[in-house]
């Protein structure tokens, strides 16, 4: 018996059975009750019908594992859920979170058997939650939803976006993150068909998130979401099998190229850009936000904007690279990715044209991004290009079913020639297949197959039909050719647009400055004010556009370096097709090289020219291969397009040490044997060949091209090894390419100086008009504006022409000192003398004072320097004149020669401080010319009337070496026709083709001319003269 003082034991809490514990946990997870609640809780649903069913089955009113699915279905099936209740998908996601919470709690239960039972039950209910979440996501109408409930895909996207949130994102997270592990288990190891419906809707909503977003918008969260999804195999498959992976829909007035951008799932991401797109602009406006009123902004602000844009665009491009790389590594999705890239290229082929229709083709922003992504995909084999370039198969151009090359211009082959080559290759290939030989060695990388049934460079279907069997091309090969096309339509097209914008901006700024000047000079009119306001708006808009292009392309040094690396591989691969870096090239251009699309090499040169003008863009980059390539092909018949050859010279011109700012470029020109042996020779040859480009603008184009050649030649003359090569070429090619070079140099010099001096007179006339302010201000505003426009136009012409004329005369000055012989050849000496006499007349003659202008340096007009160079050329040629032919040639010039002219020029030379030795020799030459003139008059008097048949039909002078033209059968003096052929390879009398080796010596006529000369001399000269010997003038005529 217990002591009365002992307290009674407290009543113990009743022990719950395992079923009761399981019931409590499952009801907490599903928020349900099987018995009427003692107090109402809106969050907990009383499942009265479910309870009745359990009682009818003689089962306890407990939420146990075997009834869990029935309870979950009944919970989701409650009719008419109120607006405040969660949607079925949101409820299931919350239930998943509660299940995770309960799973953590039971870990403290000591009863191992009970803990194991509860773990299994919770795992079971989690599985049911996920299964029904997938059903609800794919079929939103499966269970009743509250009014205006969001689509499950929208809720799933909110989860994904919240999970991908970053503190640096420009906007806050759109919602709460999902329960840990929910998304992975929801989308993970399940049947594809289970998640395909929801993923289709999810991807479309994800695309809509970025379709109107600019580089400064919130694209990074959606991008991280997409990157996460493609890492899940089924989600990756759902992406590439989505109807909008490659859209088939048509939009009125919109081309299929633009549809790829605005409708495809990846198109929205590729559209995000700083580059303006007027038709489908993104927000916020990058130009207005970063570059408005840029001229008045601090440089630091502009640099900050450049850095921001570069950073966000690299983030976008890295993300897109990662996405494509994941898909390419997945065997189930690789082919679809290659199809997408091919479709984007083919449907936007119009971007290769001069004028791009913005409604038909994707934007520059998309293709610049695609360029950057493709270059990133190329990086693994660009780092090992020497070993990987053999995997690039030229047959891809003709025998693949992805990229359409048939409308591209080949480097040196017509479509018919390419067709013939393919036909021959196909026949050989078929024989190889019959003999059982391997057709192709597959790359060690994963390969992707292409069916070469319909796409090829030529247009003839017959040849293509033979290229019809399956061909395996390595991924390196496919990626290489796709990247080449994308760069052409992307970054290179954008660079061309940037140049046009810069030119338009410069023109508008000039017009704006002119209009403001007119207003300042009293031209106040409403129309003028409107024009100024209009131009100010255009200048502001163009300035913003230019800076946007610059920010995304020119300021991204890593992007440019990747592109340079790609084109270095292009050069190495192309050179391998002709046997490597060896000169001379084979006499016959290999067909494989001939068929390369021209833009492959043209784009390489454009990029080199661009980067060569950007400070430090080439720093540390190996240029040797580009240098050797340009030397090999700049004057080769392997390349037909003269403008491509001109770009090669432009690139080398940019690399001159004084221009590039890089010490490394000096060693480029001085340390390569190929350069020492062929650079000067090929530059001289191109100087001649560029006379006829085939373009309607060829007359003016040649001056721009020769300007670059002349600058480069001037630099090379100061390099002793190249100067020696130059002298050797002049000796070996004295009557070949070097003579042609001198001829065109003289032609250009005469034209440029003549044009410049005429324009200077026009400038003086307008300057005089403006100096009379009263009369000028009384003129109508429109007339003044027109005169100002003419004035500025003439200024530009004079500046350009004078610069080139100075270069040409300068080149004659320094080469004539060491290489005078070619200038003294019979077909050249009179032409040289006439040119020098003409220049002397303009610079020292009576009209020279009319050429004085305000600020002559502004127009590159340096009359003192020109006169000094002209006098120097006279002296240099005279020093090399061993046969004494130069004085006679000077005096024979009836257009400009005047003995007083030399004296006048000498006086000016003394005043400007020219070397007295030069002046002395110059005057000695003048004396010899005067004597030669006197002798020529005596000789002419001796000869008397010359029979017409002895006269040259063009010059009407006594022929010395008559030749017959084979086509027209006209007899003409050899020096005259040779001089003509230096500029024009045609018969001047019927335009038929003619070369020097086709001339037929007229020996009979020459004998009769010689006899005539001897006869006249003997008849008119006294016998005493005959005993002393023939006078020099007559001797010259005999010779």
Can you tell me about this structure?
The protein is mainly α. Among the domains are: 137 residues, no CATH class; 250 residues, no CATH class; 209 residues, no CATH class; 72 residues, Zinc/RING finger domain, C3HC4 (zinc finger) (Herpes Virus-1, 2-Layer Sandwich). Helices cover 62% and strands 2% of the residues. The protein is built from 44 helices and 7 strands. A 3-stranded antiparallel beta sheet has the order 6-5-7. Strand 5 and strand 6 form a beta hairpin. The longest helix is centred in the C-terminal third of the chain and has 38 residues. The termini are far apart. The N terminus and C terminus are likely disordered. GO terms for molecular function: ubiquitin-ubiquitin ligase activity. Keywords: Coiled coil, Cytoplasm, Nucleus, Transferase, Ubl conjugation pathway. This is RING-type E3 ubiquitin transferase. One of its GO terms (cellular component) is ubiquitin ligase complex. Belongs to the ubiquitin conjugation factor E4 family.
Topology:
Blueprint: H1 18-30, E1 32-33, E2 45-46, H2 48-56, H3 68-76, H4 88-105, H5 112-138, H6 152-163, H7 182-187, H8 192-210, H9 220-230, H10 233-240, H11 256-263, H12 267-271, H13 286-291, H14 299-329, H15 334-347, H16 364-382, H17 385-388, H18 415-434, E3 447-451, H19 461-465, E4 470-474, H20 475-489, H21 491-520, H22 526-554, H23 557-576, H24 591-594, H25 598-612, H26 624-633, H27 642-654, H28 657-660, H29 664-670, H30 673-689, H31 698-717, H32 720-732, H33 737-771, H34 773-778, H35 781-818, H36 826-844, H37 863-879, H38 886-892, H39 899-911, H40 916-943, E5 962-964, E6 971-973, H41 974-981, E7 1000-1001, H42 1003-1020, H43 1023-1028, H44 1032-1038
Parallel strand pairs: 1-2
Antiparallel strand pairs: 3-4, 5-6, 5-7
């Amino acid at each position: 018996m217990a002591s009365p003082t002992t307290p009674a034991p407290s009543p113990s809490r009743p022990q719950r059975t395992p079923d009761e514990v399981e019931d409590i946990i499952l009801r907490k997870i599903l928020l349900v009750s099987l018995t009427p609640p003692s107090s109402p809780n809106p969050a907990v649903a009383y499942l009265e019908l479910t309870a009745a069913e359990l009682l009818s089955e003689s089962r306890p009113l407990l939420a146990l594992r075997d009834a869990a699915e029935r309870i979950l279905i009944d919970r989701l099936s409650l009719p008419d859920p109120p607006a405040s209740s969660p949607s079925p998908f949101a409820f299931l996601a919350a239930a998943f979170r509660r299940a995770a919470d309960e799973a953590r709690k039971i870990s403290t239960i000591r009863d191992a058997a009970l803990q194991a039972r509860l773990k299994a039950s919770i795992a079971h209910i989690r599985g049911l939650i996920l299964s029904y979440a997938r059903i609800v996501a794919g079929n939103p109408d499966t269970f009743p939803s509250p009014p205006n409930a969001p689509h499950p895909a929208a809720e799933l996207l909110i989860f994904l976006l919240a999970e991908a949130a970053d503190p640096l994102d420009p906007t806050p997270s759109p919602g709460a993150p999902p329960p840990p592990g929910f998304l992975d288990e929801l989308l993970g190891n399940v049947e594809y068909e289970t998640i395909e419906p929801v993923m289709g809707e999810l991807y479309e909503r994800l695309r809509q998130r970025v379709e109107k977003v600019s580089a400064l918008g919130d694209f990074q969260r959606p991008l991280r979401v997409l990157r996460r999804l493609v890492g899940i195999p089924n989600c990756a498959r759902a992406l590439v099998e989505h109807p909008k992976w490659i859209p088939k829909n048509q939009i009125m007035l919109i081309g299929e190229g633009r549809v790829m951008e605005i409708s495809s799932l990846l198109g929205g991401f590729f559209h995000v850009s700083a580059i303006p797109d007027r038709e489908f602009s993104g927000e916020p406006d990058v130009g207005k936000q970063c570059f408005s009123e840029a001229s008045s902004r601090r440089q630091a602000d502009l640099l900050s904007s450049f850095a921001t844009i570069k950073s966000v665009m690299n983030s976008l491009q890295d993300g897109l690279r990662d996405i494509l790389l994941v898909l390419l590594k997945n065997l189930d999705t690789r082919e679809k990715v290659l199809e997408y890239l091919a479709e984007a290229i083919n449907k936007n082929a119009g971007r290769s044209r001069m004028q791009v229709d913005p409604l038909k083709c994707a934007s520059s922003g998309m293709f610049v991004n695609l360029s950057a992504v493709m270059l990133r995909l190329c990086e693994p084999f660009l780092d090992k290009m020497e070993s990987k370039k053999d995997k690039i198969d030229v047959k891809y151009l003709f025998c693949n079913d992805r990229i359409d090359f048939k409308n591209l211009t080949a480097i040196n082959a017509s479509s018919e020639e390419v067709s013939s080559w393919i036909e021959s290759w196909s026949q050989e290939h078929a024989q190889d297949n019959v003999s059982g030989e391997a057709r192709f060695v597959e790359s060690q990388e994963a390969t992707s197959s292409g069916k070469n049934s319909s796409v090829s460079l030529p247009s003839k279907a017959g040849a293509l039909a033979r290229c019809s069997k399956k061909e395996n091309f390595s991924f390196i090969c496919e990626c290489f050719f796709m990247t080449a096309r994308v760069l052409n339509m992307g970054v290179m097209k954008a660079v061309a647009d940037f140049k046009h914008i810069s030119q338009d901006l410069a023109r508008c700024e000039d017009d704006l400055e002119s209009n403001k000047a007119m207003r300042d000079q009293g031209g106040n009119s409403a129309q003028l004010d409107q024009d100024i306001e209009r131009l100010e708006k255009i200048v502001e808009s163009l300035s913003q556009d230019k800076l946007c292009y610059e920010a995304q392309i020119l300021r991204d040094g890593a992007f440019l370096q990747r592109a340079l690396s790609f084109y270095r591989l292009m050069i190495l691969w192309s050179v391998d097709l002709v046997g490597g870096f060896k000169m001379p090239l084979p006499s016959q251009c290999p067909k494989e090289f001939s068929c390369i699309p021209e833009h492959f090499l043209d784009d390489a040169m454009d990029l080199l020219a661009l980067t060569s003008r950007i400070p430090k863009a080439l720093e540390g980059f190996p240029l040797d291969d580009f240098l050797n390539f340009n030397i090999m092909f700049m004057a080769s018949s392997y390349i037909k397009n003269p403008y491509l050859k001109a770009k090669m010279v432009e690139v080398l011109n940019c690399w001159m040490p004084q221009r590039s700012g890089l010490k490394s470029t000096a060693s480029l020109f001085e340390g390569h044997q190929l350069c020492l042996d062929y650079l000067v020779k090929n530059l001289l040859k191109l100087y001649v060949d560029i006379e006829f480009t085939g373009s309607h603008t060829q007359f003016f184009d040649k001056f721009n091209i020769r300007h670059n050649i002349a600058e480069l030649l001037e630099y090379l003359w100061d390099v002793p090894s190249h100067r020696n090569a130059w002298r050797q070429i002049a000796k070996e090619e004295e009557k070949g390419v070097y003579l042609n070079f001198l001829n065109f140099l003289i032609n250009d010099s005469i034209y440029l100086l003549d044009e410049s001096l005429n324009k200077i007179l026009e400038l003086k006339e307008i300057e005089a008009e403006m100096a009379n302010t009263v009369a000028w201000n009384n003129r109508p505003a429109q007339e003044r504006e027109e005169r100002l426009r003419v004035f500025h136009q003439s200024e530009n012409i004079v500046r350009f022409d004078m610069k080139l004329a100075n270069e040409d005369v300068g080149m004659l000055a320094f080469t004539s000192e060491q290489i005078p012989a070619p200038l003294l050849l019979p077909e050249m000496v009179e032409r040289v003398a006439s040119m020098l006499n003409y220049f002397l007349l303009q610079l020292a003659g009576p009209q020279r004072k009319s050429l004085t202008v305000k600020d002559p340096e502004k127009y590159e007009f340096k009359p003192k320097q020109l006169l000094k160079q002209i006098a120097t050329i006279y002296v240099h040629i005279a020093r090399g004149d061993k046969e004494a032919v130069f004085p006679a040639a000077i005096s024979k010039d009836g257009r400009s020669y005047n003995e007083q002219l030399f004296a006048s020029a000498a006086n000016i030379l003394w005043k400007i401080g020219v070397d007295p030795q030069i002046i002395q020799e110059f005057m000695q030459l003048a004396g010899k010319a005067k004597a030669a003139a006197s002798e020529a008059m005596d000789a002419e008097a001796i000869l008397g009337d010359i029979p017409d048949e002895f006269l040259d039909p063009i010059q009407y002078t006594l022929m010395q070496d008559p030749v017959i033209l084979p086509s027209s059968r006209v007899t003409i003096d050899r020096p005259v026709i040779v001089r003509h052929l230096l500029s024009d390879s045609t018969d001047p009398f019927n335009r038929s083709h003619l070369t020097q080796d086709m001339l037929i010596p007229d020996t009979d006529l020459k004998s009769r001319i010689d006899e005539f000369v001897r006869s006249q001399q003997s008849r008119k000269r006294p016998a005493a003269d005959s005993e002393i010997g023939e006078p020099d003038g007559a001797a010259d005529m005999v010779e």
